[in-house]
Amino acid sequence: MLLHTVGTRSGQTRITPVRYLADGDRYLVVASKAGSDRKPDWYWNLRANPDVTVEVGDETIAVHATALTGAEREEKYRIQSERIRASPRTSRRPADLR
Fold it and tell me: What domain range is 77 assigned to?
């Protein structure tokens, strides 16, 4: 998925590729910065302006982002984490990536 946001400070359009989980008529993304304790910049852009555009396949869709909470957040995070760990690209040790 390509996530189109507006930079919080710059006001410039930003386009970021993100992994997503299709969930009925919703698209879920996890705000992760490769294991860092900090959230990615696109997360802060999304919080400041939740009306964004996403590109999925050949579709461009206007969406309004909302944060999941509680048990639903935990369940969707678990599903996405399992999918990422099962991915051939991420299931190898770093030394195996050449």
Answer: 2-96
CA 75 from centre of chain: 16
pLDDT > 70 in the chain, percent? 85
CATH assignment of the domain containing 43: 2.30.110.10
Which string of DSSP letters, residue by residue, matches 20-74?
Answer: -EEETTEEE-----TT-SSPPHHHHHHHH--EEEEEETTEEEEEE-----HHHHH
Q: Is the pTM of this model over 0.85?
A: no
Phi-psi domain of 72 (left: phi exceeds 0; alpha: psi -120 through 50; beta: other):
alpha
Tally of domains in the chain:
1
Whether the pLDDT of residue 25 is over 80: the answer is: yes
